[in-house]
């Protein structure tokens, strides 16, 4: 269990706080808007109304005791920037800050953010790959080049084993798991025979995965 401070209770902040709680973490949520705080009381461990651009308020939170501080403010970049800087000044060990634009990210990183997240961009890119590319059901980006994908079994593979198809050597991908009817079977053995009813969770370079998807 981690102790997490979430600053900003808009849609992103609320979803972040709720998921953190679901994962067993302790969350203190803060927002300057009383209505947002009241709406979040049933979601989080604790919630406070406060201005996180105020140095005295930040000092009162004991931010050095949190494992993670999330700056989820999306509608006021100046407040996000000041909050990020103050959190770091008062000893926050790790600050994750939300950015809407690259120029915002640069300033946030210069002023103490340890990691930047682009929620709208990342969701848009994920949906574009999922719905804009044939035979890719889902994906998680690891780096700009490598990702984890969920794909259907290519028709020519049905009835063949992983080793018969030479998946890693020929297609340059790694099969991390087989998924069938919402059940996950990790790390299938080389003798595993593809049935065609399952989907594959694979990791690879985006060029290799797209080449595989187009060659079906």
Keywords:
alpha/beta, 216 residues, single chain, 9 helices, elongated, 26% strand, 5-stranded antiparallel β-sheet, 11 strands
What would you say this structure looks like, in words?
The protein is an alpha/beta fold. It has 9 helices and 11 strands. The chain has helices at 11-22, 34-40, 55-61, 77-89, 102-110, 119-132, 162-165, 167-171, 206-214; strands spanning 3-7, 26-31, 46-49, 68-71, 95-98, 115-117, 138-141, 146-152, 173-180, 183-186, 199-205. A 6-stranded parallel sheet has the order 3-2-1-4-5-6, with helices on both faces. It has a 5-stranded antiparallel sheet with strand order 7-8-11-9-10. The chain is elongated and about 65 Å long. The relative contact order is 0.10. It holds the Pfam family TrkA_C. This is TrkA family potassium uptake protein. Residues 134-216 form the RCK C-terminal domain.
Instruction: Tell me about the largest β-sheet.
Output: 6 strands, parallel
Give the strand order of the largest sheet, numbering strands 1, 2, ... along the chain: 3-2-1-4-5-6
Shape: elongated
Topology, number of strands: 11
Task: Find the structural class using helix and strand composition.
Answer: alpha/beta
Helical proportion?
A: 25-40%
Number of helices: 9
Topology pattern, helix = H, strand = E:
EHEHEHEHEHEHEEHHEEEH
The termini sit apart by: 44 Å
Radius of gyration: 22 Å
Q: Which ranges are low-confidence, i.e. pLDDT below 50, for 5 or more consecutive residues?
A: none
Q: Mean pLDDT, rounded to whole units? A: 89
How big a fraction of the residues is strand?
A: 25-35%
